[in-house]
Input
Amino acid sequence: MLKTIISAYYCNNYDRDNVFNAVNNAVKSLGNVNEIIKPNKRILIKPNLLSAYLPEQAITTHPEVVRAVVRIVKYFGAIPIVGDSPGNLLNGIEHIWEKTGMLAMAKEENIELVNFEKFGSIEVSIQHPTIKQICVTKALIEYDAIINIPKLKTHTLMGFSCGIKNFYGVIPGTGKMEYHKLAPAPYDFSYLLSEIYRMVKEKLLFTLVDGIDGLEGNGPSLSGKKRSFNIVAASKDTVSLDVFFLSKFGFKLKDNILIKPLREKNLGNVNLKNIICVGDDISKFNFEKVKLPVTKKFINFLPRKITRFIAKCLGYFIWVAPVINNRKCVNCLQCIKHCPANTIYFVKGETEHPIVKRNNCISCFCCHELCYHKAIDIKRSFIAKFFLKNEKE
Output
């Protein structure tokens, strides 16, 4: 099998020149760049703009990393456009662009920001056990090529969020909530992600990871702990990048739920032995004892075939679920508006704060991910705690 190249360069801050040098080196190391980025092509740059978080919170792709890619695209005569479909649009996407620093960057670089919702969507058939068709943004067919710029983070549902997970953003608007409901088990959700990646793979030029600062612990948002990984890494094979970072985070690669469908569909290189790292020495990067989410062991605990049986019959005894922290809750009710299963309720005058109806909860952790006030805790049943006894919150 041909070896896959991953280029990785050290960068320990978001100084504009430092970031550009690291990004430029990472892209150049992938080969002849003028054969990758063609003149006059309209290139969609897809960062991770989860919601309205500041760049220094390390939750969204940093605007200086996006700026560096934008300038490289321009240098080779192509036209960069930055687009995404964030998870929380209740206050408008302009608010998210401004908060994440994308608006200022786009104005300074004189480029277009696009909202995937405004493009409309197309329905695509997929191969999935519970979902036969999905709606994705028409932006995927409007542009000539794609560059993927994910943020390096842990993730309470999937354990890990990087290159493959970042493409969930091509599903516009509330469609994300619907597919979470139709694919609630991590295993089913990973198959959905693999189908989305299969869809975008043909147009994808490369993935470049913003791992200068990222999250460990209960990511991918405010409940995660900010950590400096000091790395910018790129590859034409997004699967190889995810495998590389999964191994550095300490995840076991054998039968990993993210990797298994990618391997089955032959969507990329999943073998560490077939990955060649070029650039700076690996010892420069900060991957020592990365703290994983408390859900890490539970994600792979049950075989997919009995997941639904367990959920229906033993869910009272074995569960990992979100719980409202009344001390932190401000009753903004965002959790209710973003719950795919409609399992969080609030009755004014009767309940002091929203309440999660655990029997109907699908443990997608969307509420945990999108709460601006860190008011969603992750709780486990006694039996789940037994299996996760080595994990600390």
Summary: Residues 186-200 form the longest helix (15 residues). The first strand starts at residue 4 and ends at 10.
